[in-house]
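Changelog note: in this version the structure field was regenerated for every chain. One regenerated record is shown below for reference.
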Amino acid sequence: MKITTKKGDDGLTDLPDTATGIRNNSRVQKDHPYIEYLGTLDELDASLALCEIALQSNGAAGFSSLIKKAREGLFATVNHPDIAWLEQHIETLEKENPIHGFVKTWTNPTAAAINAARTVCRRCERRAVTAVTANNTKVEINSPLNAACAWLNRLSDLLFLLAVAEEKKSCK
């Protein structure tokens, strides 16, 4: 596969079929809301990969496997992994690490990396919302992203609690 095609030099890119559900070979601006969402999703995956590696090297295999499973679901366009799975892990982490106010500082590098990934996840969620509500474009984007918004919202909660748990481990 050739990487350099020069097709994007005019500021346009191909709109993936998954955006509309129909194969139409549309070309859109590179800052189209759906392209922005996909780019932020890619950025989130890279951030989560760093978290997964950091957790593995810290011996936190359980947390690392949670991140790995979340990464596997990032690019699902219709069927994101079960939200109930995320909620189950959120509930467990909340019980193990009760939150008493807003966490303002991160002293553990892994916790800080997870928290940074959480902020990228929140941005990705905002980009998904923008893509869902982009009525001023010729391309209709809706149902796959509606599920993505809820899934990303839960994922950011899970990431916050993972960061808290990692921070707590370093304070013992």
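Spot check on this record: The chain has a mean pLDDT of 84. The domain at 37-170 is CATH 1.20.1200.10 (Hypothetical Protein Ta1238; Chain: A;).
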